Amino acid sequence: MPTNLPPQYFEIERRLKSAVDTDEKISLTEELLSIIPKHKGTEKLRATLKTKLAKLRQTAQKKPTTARHGASHAVHRTGAGQVVLTGAPNTGKSSLVRRLTNARPEVSDYPFTTLEPLPAMMPYENIQIQLVDAPPVSKDFMEPWVPDLIKAADAALVVVDLNALNPVEDLRVVFDNFSEKRLVMTGTRATDVDTGSSVTFRRALLVFNQSDRGIPEALRERVLEMIGPTFLPLAVSARTGDGIDHLKARLFEVLDVVRIYSKVPGKKAETMDPFTLKRGSTVMDVAKAVHKDFAHKLKFARIWGREKFEGQRVNRDHVVQDEDVIELHM
Description:
By secondary structure, the chain is of the alpha/beta class. It has ten helices and twelve strands. The strands form two sheets. Strands 1, 2, 3, 4, 5, 6 and 7 form a seven-stranded mixed beta sheet that branches.
């Protein structure tokens, strides 16, 4: 009986195989169990993983306890890219994560409900994008590790409550806090503004939540005057779902990646689990992603895609485009 495992299962499984730390193995095994669909075809697999998890927990209990010098808040990256959600308290970040993913983070009317980074996977077409809900940023307090979390991610999603008393001031506080930690949000590609200094530029999307009718033009102008015209603010509603599909498409766009399908000669391309690479990657980069040995043995490739001849022969340095089909020849 088929198991019908989701695409992210195989990536987490690869990380589990290469993991060394017992605590990391436990975390990854728990993550696998949480995403495996529950039906007759997965009973054996779930039982096997539960047995492994029990043994790992026994091993962890036997380890001698050692002093820890602060907890790590790093989140293992998975999927096509990692986007961290940030913003002032009570902007609806957790509600937005609920709407975009299958996760169920705690949602309440009081501030600072989110105290730890909470990762969740957002499906978009045939890939998964990792969203990380981070603690809020206020005038009086910001978790010191939040800027580092964003610096390590591919992009940020800055959420503003359209119905807040002063959304412009809330946004100013967030940007000023990050600026003090040498983290600068930009609406353009980070590589376009990188000056080579110690400042980290991170591409970000700006989202006005709780909006059923769009962003008032006066508010839009005030915001862009403060943070710069490179941002293209979106209006969404976590409550009704308005604008969510557009937001998903923009999140994929901001990652600046391409999806590449591999093809074995004489067979159809596998389109359900594409390789994701940074835009500007070449055929050689695809070969390395498929298998490290391919890069040494690759002679040429054939490619199918938009604005190309079907099965066109290309060299190693050919730049691939989104949804190209690549057939590697050794």
